[in-house]
Amino acid sequence: MLIHDRNSYSIDPGKVSCDYYEFLKGNPTAIRSYMGEFMNQYSWGEEYIWDLENRL
């Protein structure tokens, strides 16, 4: 699941279950579960809300 490259770490998205990734793929269950909030405890999360809202 974790990928370590020279001076970086990332994940293999195909090996994790993530509602955000499912939403982006158009999964109806993930889309219905979105309630207008995304990572609201982090200021950078606000940047994604506009994009999510426009995908509905």
What report would you give on this structure?
- The chain is of the alpha+beta class.
- Helix content is 41%, strand content 14%.
- The chain has three helices and two strands; from the N terminus they run E-E-H-H-H.
- The protein has a two-stranded antiparallel ribbon.
- A hairpin with a 2-residue loop joins strand 1 and strand 2.
- 2% of the residues are buried.
- The model has no long low-confidence stretch (mean pLDDT 90).
Strand and helix layout:
Elements: E1 2-5, E2 8-11, H1 19-25, H2 28-33, H3 46-55
Antiparallel strand pairs: 1-2
Question: In percent terms, what proportion of residues is strand?
Answer: 5-15%
The proportion of residues forming helix, as a percent range, comes to 40-55%
Strand order of the largest sheet: 1-2
Cα-to-Cα separation, first versus last residue: 29 Å
Gyration radius, in Å = 13 Å
Sheet of most strands: 2 strands, antiparallel
Runs in which pLDDT lies below 50 for 5 or more consecutive residues are none
Q: What is the number of helices?
A: 3
Give the tally of β-strands.
Answer: 2
Structural class: alpha+beta
**What is the H/E string?**
EEHHH
* Mean pLDDT across every amino acid position: 90
